[in-house]
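Input for the complex:
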Amino acid sequence: MSDIPVFFLHGLAYAGLLFLVSSGLTLIFGMMNVLNFAHAAMYMVGAYLSYTIIMQLTGQFWMALMICPVILFIIGALVERFLLRRVHAQGHLGELLLTFGLAYIITELVKWYWGNYPLAVNVTGFLSGSITIFGFIYPIYRIFVFFSAVLVGGIMALILYKTRLGIILRASVNDSEMTNTLGVNVPLVFMGVFAFGTALSGFAGVIAGPFLSTFPGMAQEILIDAFVVIVVGGFGSLGGAVVAALLIGQLQSFGVLLIPKLSVALIYLLMAAVLIIKPSGLFGEES
Amino acid sequence: MKQKSISLITIVVLFLVGLFMPFILKQYHLNMLTEIIIFSLYAVSYNLLLGYAGLLSFGHAAFFGLGAFVTAIAIIHIPGISLWNVILIGVAATVVAGLILGGLLLRHKGSYFALLTLAFNALFYAVATKWHSVTGGDDGLSITRPNLALGFTSIPLSSLTTFYYLTLVIMGAAIVYCWYFTNTAMGKTVVLMRENEDRMKFLGYNTNISRLILFTFTGALAGLAGVFYTFHFQFVSISAISPDMTTAILLMVFVGGTKIFWGPILGVFVYVIFQNYLSNVTDRWPLFMGLIFVLMVLYVPGGLSGVIMNIKQRFFGKKNNNGDKTAQAEEVIS
Amino acid sequence: MRNYLHIHNIHKDFSGLQVLTGVEFKVQEKERHAVIGPNGAGKTTLFNIISGKFKPSSGAILFKGKDISGKPPHILNRYGLSRSFQITNAFQELSVFNNILAGVRSRYGLRYNFFKKPNQNREICEKVDAIIKEVGLTDVKDQPASSLSYGQQRALEIGITLSTEPELILLDEPTAGMTREETNQAIKMIDQVTAGRTLIIIEHDMEVVFSLASMISVLHYGTILVSDTPEKIRNDQRVKDAYLGEG
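Predicted:
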C-alpha cells in the first residue's frame, strides 16, 4: 500500500487524457446536440498520425502536437459541412447513425493504412525523463499529460466565459434561431464547434500515443470511458467533465490496485449510482 | 380489411414455403435460413422499439446475449433440463434485466438514452468477458440441444432439419404475434406516444409505465431469439452479447427500413447473404458496414422497404385511403 | 354544502417569479365557469396546475372534497377531468378518427392491452363516431389532422378533450384566432357538447364569455379579483378598472 501516491498520479494522468477526449465530445453535444460516435475514431486518427509524424517523418513530438489538431480540425470541418449538415433535418437519429457509420469507416481505414497491430510512439528529450515525487521516481510524460489537460481546459473556459466568441457560442446553444436572426452565422458556428471538438480529439490522440500506446482497439476502449465521463459529469457541462474525469481516473487506477477482478464494473457502478441519485449528472441541469 | 386478409394469406404462404425448404435447400443454405429466421425475430423486436416507439437503443444485444448465455449456462448446470424450461429461464432472465435497465435508463430520451444503452451493453459484454468461470470468457460455452419433449413423445433435435422446423414454428409464431401486436391497444399506444407523448398523459395514459413495458417486452423477444441462437449454433461466445451484435441488428433494421413491419426482415435477408458473400471476398467487412450506414442515412433514410413502397406507389399510384398521412405512417399506425 | 371544485389559495412561482399568488375560487357541479383576465394574469398557468401539468408551489385543489393538487395528468384524467390546449395539441399524422379513438379507448380501459384491437370494438367505434359528429367533423373523419382547416383543428381539439368522457372540462381559449362566424358556431357547439357537465373556460372574447358562462372569475396579477355571476361582473367597478387600466 506504500505506493498509493503512484496510483494517485496514474489516476491523475488518465483523468487528464479522459478530459481531453470527453471535453470535445461534451462541447459538440452541448453546442450542437449531436452525440458524436466518431469522436473516439478521430482520436485514433490523431494517435496514428502522430506515429507517422514522430517516428517516420520528423522525430519531433512537438511537431505532431501542432500539426495533428490542425489536420483533424480540417477533417472535422469537412465532415460537418458535407455530411452532418445534410442529415440534420432527419433529427438526432440520422446524426447518430451517420457518426456511428463514420466511426466504423475511420477505424477500418486506420487499420488498413497503419496495420492491425500496436505501434510504439516514443518521446525524446525532457519529456522522456523521470522526476522524484513523494520519494518515487515518476515519468515526466504522465505529469505532462495531466498538465496539458489543465491547460486546454483553462483555455476553453477562458474562451467560453470571457470572450465575445464565447457569448455567441453560448447564445447559439440556447436559441439558434434567435441568434441567427441577430446576424450570427449559426451554420458557421456549428462547423467551427465541430471542427474544434474534432481537433481536441486529435490533440488527445497525440498525447495518448506515448502514454497508452497506439493500437487498433484504442478508440473503442476510450469511447465508453468518455461516455461515462459525460453521463456522470452531466451532458454538455465542461465543469462536470473535469470532476467526472478526475473521479473516473482515480477509480480506474485504484480499482486495478484494490479489486482487480471487479475494476471494469466499478465505473459502471458509479454511473448507475449517479443515474439513480441524480439522473441529469452531477453538474447537469434538470430538464 | 382487404389489406389484412392479404397479409394473412402472405403469412400462410410463407409458412408453407418454409415447410418445404428442407427438401429444396442444401445443409449450408438451410443453416443460413435458420439463422435468418432467428435474426428476424431479433430485428422485429428491435424495430418495435426503434420504428414504432421511436426509442433508439444501442443496447439490444445485451438482451439477445443474455438470453443466449443463460441458455448455455442452464443446459450445462442443470442436467436433464427440458427444452421448454430452458426457454422459460432464458426469457425470464431478460424480463428481469429489462425491468431493471428500463427503470434506470428510460428516464432519459434521445441521444442520452442511446448513449446509456450503449454503455450498459458494454457492461454486459465486460462481465461476460471477465467472468470466465461462468461464461467461459473468450472460449465461449458449448452445449448440445436438449430433446423436444411433447408430453407423449420426445423428438431429438440433433438434426438440423428438425431444429429448423422448431425454429420456424416458434420464431415464426413470435414474429406473427409481433405483427398482431402492432394493431393491439398497446401497440397503438406506443405509436401515439411517439407522436405526442404530452397529449397521451392528458388522455389517461401512464406513459412511463408504457415505455417500461414495451422496453421489457422487446427485450424479452430479443432474449427468446438469443435462446434459439445458442440452440442453433450449440455454442455461445461473447460476440453474442457484444456491442457489435447491437450494431449488426441496427444495420439490418436500418437497411430494411423502420417504417414498415416487414422491413427489418428484408434487412436481415440482405445482411446475412451480403455478409456471407463479402466476408468471403474481403476481411474489411466493418468498412462496408460503415459505408452502408453513411450512404443509407444520406440517400435512403427510409431503407429498402421504403424504396419498394415508393416504387409501388409510383406505379400503382393509388394512395392508401386509410386517412393517416403517409403510406408509411399508415403501416405503422393503423 | 360541499363544493364540487375548490381552488384553494394556490401559489405558483417559477424560479422566483411569482405568477399565482393565492388563487381562490369555487366551482359548483354543472356550472359553466369562465376565468377571464388580462394577458399575463396567469390563466394558463392556473389551468396547467389544475390539470396536473405543473405542481403548485403551495395550496390545494379539492375535487369533490379530495385534494388532487400535484397528481399527474393521467390520474386526473381518470378522475374525470379533461383539458383542451390553446394551441391545438393533436396527433397530427393521424386521422381524425384515430385521434378521437386514443381518448375513447382510454376511457374504456383499453390502454395497454396486448391482445385486443381497439378498432374492432363496436361500442368504442360508435362512441368515436358520436363524438366526431358532435364536434362536426364527420365529413373529414378519415383525413389526417394536419390537413384540417384552422377551425376544424380547433373542433378536433375539443373532440379530443371530450373523448375520455370527462365530467369536468377545462377549455383553454377554444375560440382563439377564429373569425366572428367561426366563433359563433364554436359557441353553439361548446354549448351542446358540455351540456350536463361542469365547464371551466379561459376566454378573452367577452362575447363568448357572456353567452356561455353562468359564473365568472376575474384573474388579475395572479389572484382572483372577484368571482360572481355575469350580471354582477358586468357592472363591477374593480373589473372595469382592471381592464381599463390595461388600456
